[in-house]
Amino acid sequence: MGHGDRTALVTGGARGIGAEICRQLADRGLKVLVAARKREAAEEVCGRIGPAAVPLALDVSSAVSVAEAVNEAVGRFGAIDVLVNNAGVSLDASRTALNLDEEALHATLETNLLGAWRLAGAVVPGMVRAGYGRVVNVTSSYGSLALMDSGRHPTYRVSKTALNALTRMLAAEVAGTGVLVNAADPGWTRSGMGGPSAPRGPEEGADTPVWLATLPEGDGTTGGLFADRRPLPW
Ligand SMILES: NC(=O)c1ccc[n+]([C@@H]2O[C@H](COP(=O)([O-])OP(=O)(O)OC[C@H]3O[C@@H](n4cnc5c(N)ncnc54)[C@H](OP(=O)(O)O)[C@@H]3O)[C@@H](O)[C@H]2O)c1
What UniProt keywords apply to this chain's record, in alphabetical order (predicted)? Predict the structure, then answer.
């Protein structure tokens, strides 16, 4: 089966790196479910991408919304072959580990960790049954324990470290089934989150997630963390 027969779901697909991931996946011939909290925002992106892109209303912080969106997607397209957990928030840039904002911690984990976990729970069992799947968790070098040299952005860092752990667990749990699970660091990229002075454009930021989302049949790359298509220390 070529990419043209595959369906991808991208969370946070209406702007930033997620919108560019959607565009690049559609360019490679996949049908792309552009998932966004506001359906109108997703519709706008789909209008720009073309008929391969389909809007989907999805708030990853709500278990009900995840269940409804996945039901709708599977009902309309039969299967989700590729899941890109891209939706993310960064709520405590001005904080440090010793200056914790507990509310921000809960809200960040709800989206960055639980959102991805809920989607995986709703989508990966179908991939395992189908014997094919690609899961990409969009993480950050800020979540790398090996590179953890600062207490800044504490809840964001912890959420991405936990997302990395989820990546390892899922990869181990589905090993040998044809489902590959990896984590991608897009690098510091211009977006709502990255701000205007980041050195990378969305095209560059989306490259590694898209590469992992389209690993060819028979590729054994799983349980890894990558930046610029190269391994990054956990
Ligand atoms: N930019 C960087 O420098 C950088 C570096 C490393 C990692 N990352 C990661 O890359 C990913 C994309 O970030 P970005 O830079 O493109 O940031 P962004 O421009 O701020 O976009 C964030 C996206 O996440 C979505 N989102 C947030 N909460 C959501 C929820 N509860 N349900 C569904 N969607 C939700 C947003 O949707 P709405 O439009 O509905 O708000 C938006 O589409 C994130 O996981 C981020 O942590 C970014």
Answer: Oxidoreductase
